[in-house]
Amino acid sequence: MRLPGFVGGRPTGRALAAVQFVISASALLLVITTAGLFVLQRVARDEALRDATELTRVVTDVAIRPHVSRALLDGDPAELAALEAAEGAVLGDVIVRVKLWAPDGRIVWSDENRLIGTAPGASSDIVEVARTGVADAEFADPTADEHTFEQGQGELLEVYVPVVAADGTRLVAETYQTSGRVAAATHAIWWSYLPVMLIALVALALAQMPLALWWGRRSRAEAEERVELLARAELARQDERSRIASDLHDTVVQDLAGMAFDLAATASSVHRRSTEELATTLREGAETSRSSIAQLRAMLIKLHPGDAPPIDLARELPELAADLKGRGVRVDVDIDPVSLDHELRALLFRAAQEGVRNVARHAAATRATISLTARDGVATLLIEDDGQGMSSRDLVKQRAAGHVGLTLLADRVRAQQGELTISSEPGRGTRLVVWLPLEARKAG
């Protein structure tokens, strides 16, 4: 079974490009999705930590700060009792432990009475919060000495907030919160942002659709253009083959055939001919041979223009006219001095060659004009005859029959930002005009 876009089980260039586009777009979405989920997870976690910090700040301001004073630092029983009474407003399902730290690393108060008055030493986090007055949060190290009484409660979150009493006393309040709440808050925030991110990704994917459609249309157009160019190249090849065969038949083959007949006739009657007659026949045969060799060389040069010297239109156009004159056509030649690059000279010569060939083959003309002029930055080539002419229907028939020389020539002229026109009516001759800018640039 053969699938569209696949040849011999392998994807064609178009199908392969489509697969590459889908893979690259999918990879891009995967990378963006992965990065987005990672960033979203970090954002959600940071937001949950901020919520936990804010909870500790509120609880501290409401239940603990009013009882913080210099007397509490000195271990005043009344202040300790007041904090113990406020303990119920602090502890719960979320906050499972609370401590008040003095700057010297001593625990001034805690809901765990066995910790009050101990001095495990302030961690670097506590020292930093006391110094800067900026709250902080981190997950607790369960192996630390200060967490002796929190074993078995799972992973805990430590939150530190500065506490400044009205009399200027500075302490640091520390709460332990269950990590489950932080995880739940993280998940809640994550899920609240996830739809927004997914919508953005879907929008990104949809935004690529017009690009994909445009790319697909462009690929199809380029493929069709390549097919058309290949078809035109094949037509040009066939047309060139036909032209070469026709040129050989009309020139070299005819001359050599005539010479062969003459030599055969001379050979059959050599005993009846004089020496002068034989010499004349041989001279004519030699001249025909030289002429045929020259014509063959000219064809080889045209077939291999890279090996040929630069085209001199002032010499080549009169030679084309000589071909018509040899057929009994009166030709007027008018050539202005024109400075052109090699590519434009070759194109004008090709146009003149095509025009003269059509006059010789189809026009049945008695008079023709070959003109090359340069005015206002434009080179104009004119091939005109007084022959039988043709209608637009005749031109269509010629194209249908595979004669596309003029069509291909017109394409080459347009590629140089020029123009080719044909004016003709039955019985009133044909006029071929090619306009080319002297400073030509290839279109496209």
What layout of secondary structure does this protein have?
Layout: E1 6-7, E2 10-11, H1 13-64, H2 70-73, H3 77-85, H4 87-90, E3 95-101, E4 107-110, H5 124-132, E5 136-139, E6 156-164, E7 170-178, H6 179-268, H7 275-303, H8 313-325, E8 330-335, H9 342-363, E9 367-375, E10 378-385, H10 392-400, H11 405-415, E11 419-424, E12 430-437
Parallel strand pairs: 8-9
Antiparallel strand pairs: 1-2, 3-4, 3-7, 5-6, 6-7, 9-10, 10-12, 11-12
Question: TL;DR of this structure?
Answer:
By secondary structure, the protein is an alpha+beta fold. Helix content is 57%, strand content 17%.
What does this structure look like?
With 444 residues, this protein is of the alpha+beta class. The chain folds into 2 domains: 11-239, Beta-Lactamase (2-Layer Sandwich); 311-444, Heat Shock Protein 90 (2-Layer Sandwich). It is 57% helix and 17% strand. The chain has 11 helices and 12 strands. The chain has helices at 13-64, 70-73, 77-85, 87-90, 124-132, 179-268, 275-303, 313-325, 342-363, 392-400, 405-415; strands spanning 6-7, 10-11, 95-101, 107-110, 136-139, 156-164, 170-178, 330-335, 367-375, 378-385, 419-424, 430-437. Strands 4-3-7-6-5 form a 5-stranded antiparallel sheet. The protein has a 5-stranded mixed sheet with strand order 8-9-10-12-11. The chain has a two-stranded antiparallel ribbon with strand order 1-2. α9 links the parallel β8 (330-335) and β9. It is rod-shaped and about 160 Å long. The model is unreliable at 1-11 (pLDDT under 50).
Distance separating the two termini: 40 Å
CATH level-four homologous superfamily name of the largest domain: PAS domain
Record the strand order, biggest sheet.
Answer: 4-3-7-6-5
Written as H for each helix and E for each strand, in order along the chain, the element string is EEHHHHEEHEEEHHHEHEEHHEE
